[in-house]
Please model this.
Amino acid sequence: MLETEILGMKLSNPLFLAAGILGTTASSMKMVARAGAGGIVTKSFSIEPNDGYENPTIVKIEGGVINSVGLASPGVEAKKEELKELDEIRNKTPVIASIYGNSEEVFCEVAERTKDYVDAFELNVSCPHAQCGFGSNIGEDPDLTHSIVSAVKDAIKDVPIIVKLTPNVTDITEIAKAAQDAGADALTLINSVGPGLRIDYQTGKPILNNVFGGIAGPMIKPIALKCVYQTYTVVDIPIFGVGGIKDYKDALEFMYAGSSLLQIGTSIMYEGPEIFKHISDDLSKFLEENGYDNINDIIGLSHRV
Model:
């Protein structure tokens, strides 16, 4: 019922681990695969090691979290060793590498050095708490997004390219079309919203070391759904929906809006990695009870009713 094939990946279910949660080491990613994830997106990495911001980097809020990790990464060579260890699971659980950089050259070099160990790349041009020149500094500019996607697509012809977009723009469909025109094979919508801020009421100090951070979790679901719904009407490539999915009802909403695949991140912090099996089981049961033959039957349903 949930089996699907997309971007050359054969999937037992449409639920991927989102970038940033448990995607750092091979052991944690294997654990998520055993828990029932249909696919894995690694934590974002680039060429050089990056310690990110000092703690505290995450604070709980009602309905989610605010995080400001700062694109902490072990660097491409260390990450490549972790990716090699995932070869044994890739036939059943495809692996997508989330990569970032501050130029076409950096994105291309990271992709070149790891392309043999992954099933697709997700270009992170949307992190709201990256240093200037990285993350959403790129994804807020359609021309810059186009040039980077085009460069990576030209350099890496045999591995699908997915572009993760920020909702923190006036019109996300403009960025989506720029990415598609540049050759993107799919899109991921959305990255964190904000940045946002929490302040310690006793001391008056901002809680996060970086002061501001990206807002994630169930509270951003309506924004993510709006972005998926709007973008589905203007592009012809698959969309990964992400943003506050915590149960099968959320998963259904994202697929009705136009998502072909889904990613789960913050909810793992509350529900554990078993969330993948719970949602898969409940989703299968819902489809069967409501007379659907396959998960693909409901993609974009809200645009047809």
About this structure: The chain is about 30% helix and 20% strand. The radius of gyration is 18 Å. The chain has a mean pLDDT of 93.
